[in-house]
Amino acid sequence: MKKLVDDVRLIFKCCCLYYQDGLGQQEICQRLGISRPTVSRMLSLGRERGIVRIELRNPDNEMFGQMEQDMEKTFHLQEVVIVQSSPLQQEKQEETRSQTDIGRAALQFLSRILNDGDYVGVSMGLTVRNVVQSDYLIDERIPCTFVPLVGGIGESRLEIHSNYLVQKFASRFGGECVQFFLPAVLSHKEVLEAILKESMIQRVFKLYRKLDVAVLGIGIPHTESSTIFRTGYVDHDILERFSRMKAVGDIALRYFDIQGNTEPFDDFNERVAGIPLDQLKKVPRRIGIAGGIQKSEAVLGAIRGGYINILITDIDCAKRMMELEREG
Hints:
Layout: H1 8-20, H2 25-32, H3 36-48, H4 59-75, E1 79-83, H5 97-113, E2 119-122, H6 126-132, E3 145-148, H7 162-173, E4 176-177, H8 189-195, H9 199-208, E5 213-219, H10 227-230, H11 236-244, E6 249-251, E7 254-256, H12 266-269, H13 277-280, E8 285-289, H14 296-304, E9 310-314, H15 315-327
Parallel strand pairs: 1-9, 2-3, 2-5, 3-4, 5-8, 8-9
Antiparallel strand pairs: 5-6, 6-7
Helix pairs in contact: 1-3, 2-3, 5-6, 14-15
């Protein structure tokens, strides 16, 4: 005799009575003539088999809707997604609620816009790591090819390097990835130019011309939060010098000022093994991901430089950006 819990029709009916009609489990027992444990098991099976999908609506999304539209118009962006900021200041930025919410929102956004066969560029850093590690459930496979936007060899913090991150994205979405086995920053411009002539490296650079989406963390030149500093590609003295030269941020490891200008930092930027910025600007969807007041100038510079055209951020960063824009 077939078990009741294998009866898909009965599972569906049980879930309808519970979730749509609002009946309690005991009422369903009486209505369907089955035991309370059977009802409980069927409700669980309804979720496991995808018969029921539970969506939590965040009231913040309703609250921030107008501001998202205002920022899209003000900064000429394709789309802006704003999440709540963390009410607590914690020592480790990557563990704040804001960073968790941003990561979840970014993964949800990617699940919506990615299509089968897309090529997706991935930069490096804690923010991008938080995205791929977020607890958002991807319930459908989207077979994309994930491509590192910068080289991925380093002696520390391997979990924030591009090569590691593209593997994680491919695993989450059921896609594929390629690897870019080259240090992200070379010792001299001439060394990089010579290496880039190698056929295996050229294969990666050819993929940059096929990108549909780029996932970009936005860094700042502060030792306590700089990804480049943590990986050892720059030291304290370089960051101090760049700060004096009015660097506000970096994207794909290239530094820029608040107007998005990279020229003052060419001595460093030209040694970065990764997607050329002029090629990055041609990617149809360039998603900048960053949160916190401390990132506001960096995000503004990234927008003004044309490096991103989609923004996922928190309300503190968003408000400060609008203030900076009004101040001119």
